[in-house]
Amino acid sequence: MTSLELDIKYNRVINEVEEDCKELLEEKEQFLILKVREYWNAIRKFNDKTRSLVQELQKQSFPGSQVQAKYEEIYHKLKVIEEFYRTKNVQLTGVYIGIMNTDKFKGKKNLLLIIDAQKDFVESGGKLFVMGAPEAMKNLCSFIDVNRKLSMISEILLTRDDHYHTHIGMPCAWLEGNPRHIINNYPITITAKQVEDGVYEPRFIQKEVVISYLKAIEAKGEIHHVWPEHCLHGDVGQQFPEQLMNSLKWWSEENGGKHFLTLEKGSRDDAEMYSAFSYADGSMPEHTKSVLNNLAEQNFDYIFVAGVAKDFCVRSTLQDLAADERFKGKLVLLEDCMAAINTKCQITEKLWKNLVENFGAEIMRGY
Fold first, then answer.
1. pTM exceeds 0.85, yes or no
2. CA within 13 Å, CB half, 87
3. Is 50 exceeded by the pLDDT of residue 234?
4. Do residues 213 and 283 lie in contact, with contact meaning Cβ atoms separated by under 8 Å?
5. Angle at which helices 3-25 and 64-93 pack, to 10 degrees?
């Protein structure tokens, strides 16, 4: 592809986006919530078109600097629209989801924190597939691919669920019925009272230990879930998907061979560990406490957060970060690089709002 062909393709994208947004700019006086939806649809069209073009150019080994320059040219075309809708969107939804402003993050010391982007969660054949995860992973990979040349991602840390089939969140760990048999109607929730009453019986962990744990999480307003077997130690479903691995490798090569880091979680049988740092009952093991302190001591300017599931592991991780003042004003939630099991989880929505209003977090679209 020649420079002229690149210019023609990008100019076509710019014209299409401007045409999509033209009516929006003319409707400033009579603003309706419908216009917010139309605006985001226009942005999504822009993202889809530029993503396919960037991927095409990458396959042809086209100079990355020229690709990025053209991408930013389109981005700036959208700035005038984004500035207007910024205020209106906050008024209507209470939370502002912005377009990624690369200028703000360039050259800064930034961490990309990716939560549990594993095959069992993000691929359609996964054992605990999360709806919307494939699209979230495409957006995440595009975020890495587009920004790895801009000195926007200094470090990458990926968490990884690491369970054994005897884990308290797995069917194999529980008995029910008369005669007793392994539970087979999962996913389900189990309460401390149900265990006390003998409705469910732990197979491998002492009953008293389980009851104490369940009461601890219930005191926090949480409830215990039993899921399909997933992310088993050494199983293929525990691994990262190929598309993400390619993006990680390219980022490493672009950054002088720097390694991305992984943090295993969830191998202890007697407690669920949704957060990257703490168990569901609030206790924090020494090794993850050390990781949390290390992240704070590195004094990142910003921490981009992505992954699955938004309403479980991502939410729990963010709750731990928000409990630590050292991360205040540093969190950037990549909304389109996440996927949720329950897309209308009120606890998650409340946390997002609180992070923005009281902790200085930003919610943005990564791509």
1. no
2. 5
3. yes
4. no
5. 10
Q: Which of 230, 8, 207, 271 has the alpha carbon at shortest distance from 119?
A: 230
Two tokens at 73? Answer: 């040219």
Q: Where are the beta strands (DSSP E) in the chain?
A: 97-99, 110-115, 155-161, 174-176, 181-182, 188-190, 200-202, 224-226, 261-265, 302-308, 331-339, 362-365
- What average pLDDT does the structure give for the chain? 84
How many angstroms separate the CA atoms of 27 and 85, rounded?
A: 11
Task: Classify domain 98-163+230-367 by CATH number.
Answer: 3.40.50.850
- Within 8 A by CB and 6+ apart from 22, the residues are none
Which strands make up the sheet holding 97-99, listed edge to edge? 97-99, 362-365, 331-339, 302-308, 110-115, 155-161, 261-265
- Contacts for 295 with CB less than 8 Å, ≥ 6 apart: 111, 157, 303, 327
Three-class SS state of 100: coil
CB atoms within 10 A of CB 281: 19
pLDDT tens digits along 247-296: 999 999 989 999 999 999 999 999 999 999 999 999 999 999 999 999 99
Pairing of strands 188-190, 224-226: antiparallel
3-state secondary structure 278-289: CCCCCCCCHHHH
Please give the backbone phi and psi of residue 167, each rounded to the nearest 5 degrees, phi first.
Answer: -65, 150
Say which residue the tokens 């095959």 belong to.
Answer: 119
Going from N- to C-terminal start, the domains of the chain cover: 1-93, 98-163+230-367, 171-226
CA dist list (Å): 113 to 62, 209, 250: 29, 33, 17
List the Cα angle 313/315/319 in 5-degree steps.
Answer: 115
